[in-house]
Amino acid sequence: MDPVTAFTLPDIPIQSCVDPELEKTGTRVDVLRLDLLDPVISGNKWFKLKYNLTRARTEGRQTLLSFGGAWSNHLHALAEAGRRFGFRTIGIVRGEPGEGLTACLEDAQAAGMILEWAGRDAYRNRDGAEFLTALRQRHGDFYQIPEGGANREGAMGCAEIVSLYDQAHYDLVCLACGTGTTLAGMASASQTDLLGFQVLKGTGYLAGRVTALGRTWDLPLVCRWAVNDDFHGGGYAKTTPVLERFIQQFEHRHGIPLEPVYSGKMVMGLFELVKKRDFFPQNSRILLIHGGGLQGRRGFKT
Ligand SMILES: *Cc1c(COP(=O)(O)O)cnc(C)c1O
Predict the structure, then answer these.
(1) In whole angstroms, what is the distance from residue 113 CA to residue 86 CA?
(2) What is the DSSP letter of 26?
(3) What b/e string do you get for 144-159 counting C-beta neighbours within 10 Å, with b at 16 or more?
């Protein structure tokens, strides 16, 4: 199947959250349900793969190779995309083989992905010539996609998320950020202000990174955008009882499942900011991008 045709965007619902905590403030919050985009290739990972698969096919590559942790939404989506569109896939997983397969990696393997472990040090040097040469010797030629789908093709795909809301006149669009690729891509196309919630610890690091990515990829960032780094909750994939309770309550009220790594932190952070009253102007209309990634919930005992 031709990836370009296969990656035709279906209708994605925008769901409004009528929430007692928000009503008092007059703020209106809607959610763009990218988690419903596809049963497996969900959320922003679908957008990040679109132009990578297209380019790999155009270049006649048969193998896609990428990197990720044991709960990587990116490797999970890539394995399924490879299965559907006829690519061999190889996932380089951070960690040691003795750590066993997570449910995420089991899915990836079942979809045909060849898994290979890289110890923490090797993984850190994964983009180095030495490591890549060794991989080519073992696996032959491949089309390489960085961890998290963080390349120019990935960002170009994410720019198309904007088309799902740009007729709707929001005051602000919020999203959860890991590598910042989705934010950079959207900021290259959005007319609405963007607010990214950084899920990794490190003051200010992501804002600098997004600026650098825009430059490196020659994608002018055309809208106003900012990064909030107050709601990482202790670091990447760290959760707290408060966050878990928030996620449960949110799903109960709105029927929208969240997960604690990305969307949970973003939605909880946004609610905190709205409750501060003076943070957003009265009667703001805010759209939250649900980035998918719900398969990762299986890694948490909630
Ligand atoms: C990967 C992912 C993100 C982060 O996207 P970046 O482009 O790396 O910033 C956010 N939310 C979910 C659910 C993800 O899977």
Answers:
(1) 12
(2) T
(3) bbbbbbbbbbbbbbbb
| pLDDT tens digit sequence for 97-117 | 888 899 999 999 999 999 999
Residue 176 CA: nearest ligand 1 atom is: 10
Whether the CB-CB separation of 88 and 82 falls below 8 Å is answered with: yes
129 by DSSP, 3-state: which?
helix
* This prediction's pTM: 0.97
Among protein residues, the one whose CA lies closest to atom 11 of ligand 1: 291
In three-state secondary structure terms, 222 is coil
24, exposed or middle or buried, with CB in 10 Å at 0-12, 13-18, 19+? exposed
Best residue among 48, 145, 199, 262 to mutate for probing ligand 1, ranked by most atoms within 8 Å of CB: 262
pLDDT tens column, 171-219: 999 999 999 999 999 999 999 999 999 999 998 889 999 999 999 999 9
- Residue 72, φ and ψ in degrees, nearest 5: -65, 120
Instruction: Specify whether the CB–CB gap between 31 and 290 falls below 8 A.
Output: yes
Phi and psi torsions of 258, nearest 5°: -120, 170
